[in-house]
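Hi support team,

I'm opening this ticket because the web form for multi-chain structure prediction keeps timing out on my end. I have pasted the exact lines I submitted so you can reproduce it. The total is 233 residues across two entries, so I didn't expect it to be a heavy job. Is there a limit I'm missing, or should I split the entries? Thanks in advance, R.K.
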Amino acid sequence: EIVMTQSPDTLSVSLGERATLSCRASQSVSSDLAWFQQKPGQAPRLLIYGASTRATGVPARFSGSGSGTEFTLTISSLQSEDFAVYYCQQYNNWPPWTFGQGTKVEIK
Amino acid sequence: EVQLVESGGDLVKPGGSLRLSCAASGFDFSGYTMNWVRQAPGKGLEWVSSITSRSTSISYADSLRGRFTISRDNAKNSLYLQMNSLRAEDTAVYYCARLEGFDISGHYGLIFDSWGRGTLVTVSS
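Hello R.K., no limit was hit. The queue was backed up. Here is the completed structure from your submission:
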């Protein structure tokens, strides 16, 4: 099973600032990496797949990068609606599909 | 518009059983692999089970140890999860999620692209 580890657990960011979230895989997942956003009481929403391809309707301020075992999600200028928990997930080697533990982006 | 609506969550005693349902609409349900993913209170996401479009291939998380059974009825556009011998650690919101295939520069991947709002299962005496 591939273990996904995210850092930091919590990220405090001011409105308009850049947020950088990290995700590490225990073995290479190539570019088979997705990012999800989850707000309280809501289902996860697909943001990024293929490590860097934005899903339909996702604003351009969200960008993903990386391959192999190291990945990054960047939110270029935090908007109020971006405060949420973000999960990375690998789909290279399944089952099981595995998720990181999540990074909470909160208002500084 | 893709819609996935879960139901069946409830308060159940340890050792009890529960059957969850997921009603799908807005897409050709019979053409997709479907999944259950759960989230314990205040915790992260955990994949539970997957079933291919014609039910020819089924998989489960190792942690379930044969207690859960996934099934589907394509005629009714519905996905199910039969949960037996429930334990306190099964307490979670259970989401129904669709796997969609994406081709990125010739590389094909299966991604959870649509999710329901979830149904809460609480296992407690």
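A quick check on our side: Chain A has a mean pLDDT of 96. Let us know if the file doesn't open in your viewer.
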